[in-house]
Write a structure and sequence with these properties.
Keywords: Membrane, Signal, Transmembrane, Transmembrane helix. It comes from endosymbiont of Galathealinum brachiosum. The protein is α+β, with helices and mostly antiparallel strands and 499 residues long. Helix content is 27%, strand content 29%. The strands form 5 sheets. It has a 6-stranded mixed β-sheet with strand order 4-3-2-5-6-7, with helices on both faces.
Length: 499
C-alpha cells in the first residue's frame, strides 16, 4: 500500500465491496471462509474504462480518473496492473505490469489520463474479452485476477442485431471462461440507463460486486471499497473524524471526502497545528481532487489526529507492526445462516499474546443491516489463544456491512467487510422422530396359589386326629364285639361235651 484512508462503518452499503460472502445453506458454500491478509495472493488487476462519447455527459468532470488513481496508489509492489480503454473495441493503454517501483506506478497513474470520451459505441463484449486475455493465466501462477469494469451504457456496436448477439455471447461464452479462470468482475454502472442487469449478473456470477455510481462524488468510494475487499488492509476507526495513532504505525493513508468542490481539507496532528495540501514535508504526500484528498504520512506522530472540514465516511489505512486480523466461516451445524467471526492481533507475523493489551481492549462487531439500521454487539474477552469470537445470525436478505472495531485508550484498529445473505426459502425441516412401539410380551400370569392360613392347617390336624380316634374306637369296639360273640358261641359247645 502506497497511500490512502480510513472508514468508520460503511454508510453507502450498496457500494460495499469488502470481503464478499454469500450466506445460504447451499452445500457449495460450506467451505467459504475469508483469507487472513498474510495468505492473500498478490493482485492482477485490469481496470477497464468506458471511453464512449456518452461519458462526456455521465462523467463530465472525468472523476473516474482520480478514482482509478486512488485504487492504483493503494496497490502493493507485488501487485500487477493493466489499464484498458474501450468503446467500439477494447485496447490496452498499459499491459499487465508489476508495480514494483515508482516508475511503474507513475506510468500506471498517467495511463488513466489517456482515457477519453470520444468513442462511438460501447462494446462491453470486447472489453471483457480483453480482460480475460490478460488474466487467463494469473490463477495458475498464484495470483488473484480481477477486472474492474466501468460503463455508462448498453451493449452497442452500432447494429442492434449484432449487439444483441454479442450480449448473448457474454453469458454463453465469456462468463464460463471468467469462472474457469477464477476471474472476478467488479462492475460499476454510471447511470440507471446502463445495462445494469448485465453488469450485475456477471459480477455476481464471478463472486465480484456490482455498484451503481449514480453521482460522480461517490465513485472514489466505490474504488476504496474494492480495495478493502481485495486487499483487506489494516485500518483505524474514525470517531467524528478523529483517530488515534500508536507507536507501531509506520505509515498512514487518509482518504478525506469533500463536501463540495471548493472544500479544503486540513489535518490537525497531536501537536495542535493545522496543515493542508500546501504544507511541505518529506514525510507527507498530499493528492488533491475535486471530490476527495488522499494524504500519506510516514511515521506519523503518536496521539489523536483530526480531519477538519471533511465530509463523512472517510478512511484511514495503515502500515503497522501490530495488526488486527479477522477470519470468518459458516456454522455448518446451523440450518439458519450463521457467521462465526474470529479476530486476533499479530505482531511481527506472530500472534500477539500481550495479556495486558488484550485485557484493556474493547472489541465490538458493528453491523449495518440491509434496511440501513445499525447494531453494535460487544465481543467477550479474548480466550486463551488470544482470539475474540462472536456468532452472528442475519435475519434479512441482502447486503450487510460490518466492522470489527478494537479500542483502548492509546490503541485502535478496525477491519471492515461486507457479505450478502440469502435466507432459506423453505422452513427448517423438522427431524422425523420415529417412535418405535415397545412390544410388550405378556408373560402368562401364574395361577394363584391359595395359601392356607395357619389356623386352617390346625383345624385339619384336629379333624384328622378326631377321625383317627373315631376309627380306632370303632375298630376296638368291633374287635371286642367280635370276640364277645365268638366266646359266647364257644361256651355251649363246651357244655355239650362235658355232658
Amino acid at each position: 500500500m502506497r497511500a490512502l484512508a480510513v472508514p468508520n462503518i460503511i454508510s453507502i452499503k450498496k457500494l460495499l465491496t469488502s470481503v464478499c460472502l454469500t450466506l445460504s445453506m447451499a452445500s457449495t458454500l460450506s467451505h467459504a471462509v475469508n483469507t487472513p491478509l498474510e495468505d492473500k495472493l498478490p493482485l492482477d488487476t485490469v481496470v477497464i474504462m468506458d471511453s464512449s462519447g456518452s461519458m462526456k455527459q455521465t462523467d463530465p468532470k472525468q472523476l473516474r480518473k482520480p478514482a482509478a488513481k486512488l485504487f492504483i496508489s493503494l496497490l502493493g509492489n507485488q501487485d500487477r496492473l493493466s489499464v484498458v480503454s474501450f468503446s467500439s473495441k477494447a485496447w490496452p493503454i498499459t499491459y499487465l505490469t508489476q508495480l514494483e517501483n515508482d516508475k511503474q506506478l507513475n506510468q500506471a497513474l498517467r495511463a488513466t489520463d489517456k482515457i477519453s470520451h470520444k468513442g462511438m459505441h460501447t462494446n462491453i463484449h470486447s472489453a471483457i474479452e480483453k480482460g480475460i486475455e490478460f488474466l487467463k493465466e494469473s490463477d495458475q501462477i498464484n495470483r488473484e485476477p480481477i477486472i474492474i469494469l466501468m460503463s455508462d451504457g448498453q451493449m452497442d456496436v452500432g447494429n442492434a442485431e449484432k449487439s444483441a448477439q454479442l450480449r448473448t455471447q457474454i453469458f454463453e461464452d465469456l462468463l464460463p471462461k471468467l469462472i474457469e479462470h477464477n476471474i472476478k468482475i467488479y462492475s460499476i454502472a454510471f447511470t440507471e440507463a446502463s445495462d445494469q442487469e448485465l453488469l450485475q449478473e456477471i459480477a455476481e456470477a464471478t463472486d465480484g460486486r456490482y455498484a451503481l455510481a449514480a453521482s460522480d462524488d461517490v465513485l472514489h468510494k466505490v474504488f476504496s471499497k474494492i480495495f478493502e475487499q481485495t486487499k483487506q488492509p489494516d485500518m483505524l476507526p474514525l470517531n467524528e473524524n478523529k483517530f488515534i495513532v500508536d507507536a507501531s504505525i509506520n505509515e498512514i493513508t487518509i482518504i478525506a471526502n469533500k463536501s463540495s468542490e471548493n472544500s479544503q481539507i486540513y489535518l490537525q496532528p497531536p501537536t495542535g497545528e493545522k496543515i493542508n495540501s500546501t504544507f511541505k514535508s518529506e514525510k507527507i504526500k498530499w493528492f488533491v481532487s475535486t471530490s476527495f484528498d488522499m494524504i500519506t504520512i510516514k511515521k506519523p506522530d503518536e496521539g489523536e489526529w483530526k480531519i477538519l472540514f471533511s465530509d463523512d465516511d472517510n478512511r484511514a489505512y495503515i502500515v503497522t507492526d501490530v495488526k488486527l486480523r479477522t477470519q470468518f466461516e459458516f456454522n455448518e451445524d446451523s440450518y439458519q445462516p450463521e457467521l462465526i467471526i474470529k479476530s486476533w492481533f499479530i505482531q511481527n507475523e506472530e500472534t500477539e499474546a500481550n495479556q495486558e493489551l488484550l485485557k484493556s481492549m474493547e472489541v465490538a462487531l458493528e453491523i449495518e443491516h440491509p434496511d440501513d439500521t445499525i447494531e453494535t454487539f460487544p465481543i467477550e474477552a479474548a480466550n486463551e489463544q488470544g482470539e475474540f469470537i462472536i456468532h452472528f445470525k442475519p435475519q434479512l436478505d441482502g447486503i450487510y456491512g460490518a466492522a470489527i472495531i478494537a479500542k483502548s485508550r492509546t490503541f485502535q484498529r478496525q477491519q471492515i467487510f461486507s457479505f450478502k445473505n440469502t435466507m432459506p426459502t423453505e422452513p427448517e425441516p423438522v427431524e422425523e422422530v420415529i417412535i418405535k412401539e415397545e412390544v410388550i410380551i405378556e408373560e402368562p400370569e401364574a395361577l394363584p396359589i391359595d395359601e392356607e392360613p395357619e389356623e386352617d392347617i390346625t383345624k385339619i390336624l384336629i379333624y384328622f386326629g378326631i377321625f383317627n380316634v373315631v376309627i380306632i374306637f370303632l375298630g376296638l369296639n368291633g374287635f371286642l364285639i367280635y370276640r364277645h360273640f365268638k366266646n359266647s358261641k364257644a361256651t355251649p359247645e363246651t357244655s355239650n361235651e362235658e355232658e
